[in-house]
């Protein structure tokens, strides 16, 4: 099935605390769905899921990037006792606690976290693009993108993980790199979570890349895009992005969101497709024991 590239122009978004809170809720919903998927894969994992002040704390394994605290500081104040209880769980499971804090969250919260032993380890940018069902699209030559059904999950997972194992980076480096086995688990759990749609891109007969999409509250979360090294610089990422934008718009989503490292190729690709920076998340980490 041939997919289409989005037009270059889009109306800039008005960034408000309400919009950021809505995006963070969608991210928290994604994390909860991934925790359920992780437990389905490994019932002995016993994931920890706890809401806190409009956000959510997830522990899905000591080495899992899904283990984090997200969405804080936008919907209600954070209680120190609740935070201490979550820290105790992560300490007991010998896992550093990572907090992803939106730049529009309460300013005082960042100071409180640093006093509790959290250190700044990086940033990630949240970009957005409004969607319209009647938007015009143009064909991406030489790349075909189609939905990837459940029986094709193993093939999809191999392509996406292989791309991530061989990163094509510029700008800020990732805060951590995971071994292939850990990537297979977390990406597999994410892509198998409720509400996900997967896509494969092909150049001729060869599979070239893969990506996924999750819809929540009218927001399309664009996740897990990856291209095999041999197929890079041929428009595969653009085709995967455009396919998901088209499907999201047709399904009634009003906004597409993508999270990237500052200055990365993924960010530059998104900007060329009409995305703009909405806000930044500070990534803070507390070592076991504080």
Concise account of the structure shown:
This protein is of the alpha+beta class and 290 residues long. Helices cover 33% and strands 30% of the residues.
Structure description:
The chain has 290 residues and is an alpha+beta fold. It has two domains: 4-13 and 129-280, Gcn5-related N-acetyltransferase (GNAT) (Aminopeptidase), CATH 3.40.630.30; 17-123 and 282-286, no CATH class. The protein has helices at 17-41, 80-92, 107-115, 153-165, 180-191, 236-250, 265-272, and strands at residues 4-6, 48-52, 55-59, 68-70, 97-102, 119-130, 137-139, 144-147, 196-203, 206-216, 219-227, 255-260, 276-286. An eleven-stranded mixed β-sheet has the order 2-3-4-5-13-6-12-11-10-9-8, sandwiched between helices. Helix 4 packs across helix 5.
CA-based gyration radius: 19 Å
Which second-level CATH architecture of the largest domain applies? 3-Layer(aba) Sandwich
Order of helices and strands: EHEEEHEHEEEHHEEEHEHE
Number of helices: 7
Strand order of the largest sheet: 2-3-4-5-13-6-12-11-10-9-8
Nearest-integer average pLDDT: 90
Q: End-to-end span in angstroms? A: 52 Å
CATH superfamily name of the largest domain?
Answer: Gcn5-related N-acetyltransferase (GNAT)
Task: Give the DSSP E fraction (strand runs of 2 or more residues).
Answer: 25-35%
Question: By helix and strand content, what is the structural category?
Answer: alpha+beta
What level of helicity do the residues show? 25-40%
Shape: globular
Number of domains: 2
CATH class of the largest domain: Alpha Beta
Tally of extended strands? 13
> Which sheet architecture does the biggest sheet show?
11 strands, mixed
Unreliable stretches, pLDDT < 50, 5 or more residues? 1-9
Per the CATH scheme, the topology name of the largest domain is: Aminopeptidase
């Amino acid at each position: 099935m041939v997919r289409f590239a989005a037009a270059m122009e889009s109306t800039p978004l008005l960034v408000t605390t309400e919009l950021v809170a809505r995006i963070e809720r969608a991210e928290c919903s994604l994390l909860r769905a991934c925790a359920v998927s992780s437990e389905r894969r490994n019932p002995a994992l016993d994931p920890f899921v706890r809401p806190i002040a409009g956000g959510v704390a997830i522990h899905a394994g000591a080495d899992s990037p899904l283990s984090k605290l997200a969405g804080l500081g936008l919907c209600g104040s954070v209680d120190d006792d609740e935070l201490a209880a979550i820290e105790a769980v992560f300490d007991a499971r010998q896992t550093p606690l990572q907090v992803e804090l939106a730049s529009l969250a309460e300013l005082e919260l960042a100071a409180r976290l640093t006093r509790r032993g959290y250190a700044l380890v990086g940033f990630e940018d949240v970009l957005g693009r409004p969607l319209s069902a009647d938007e015009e699209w143009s064909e991406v030559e030489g790349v075909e993108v189609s939905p990837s059904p459940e029986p094709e999950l193993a093939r999809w997972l191999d392509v996406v993980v292989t791309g991530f194992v061989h990163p094509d980076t510029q700008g800020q480096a990732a805060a951590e790199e995971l071994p292939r086995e850990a990537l297979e688990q977390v990406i597999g759990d994410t892509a198998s979570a409720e509400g996900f749609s997967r896509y494969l891109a092909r150049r001729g007969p060869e599979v070239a890349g893969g990506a996924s999409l999750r819809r929540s509250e009218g927001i399309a979360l664009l996740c897990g895009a990856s291209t095999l090294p041999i197929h890079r610089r041929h428009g595969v990422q653009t085709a995967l992005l455009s396919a998901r934008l088209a499907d999201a718009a047709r399904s009634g989503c009003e906004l597409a969101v993508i999270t990237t490292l500052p200055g990365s190729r993924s960010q530059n690709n998104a900007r060329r497709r009409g995305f703009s920076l909405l806000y930044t998340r500070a990534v803070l980490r507390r070592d076991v024991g504080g």
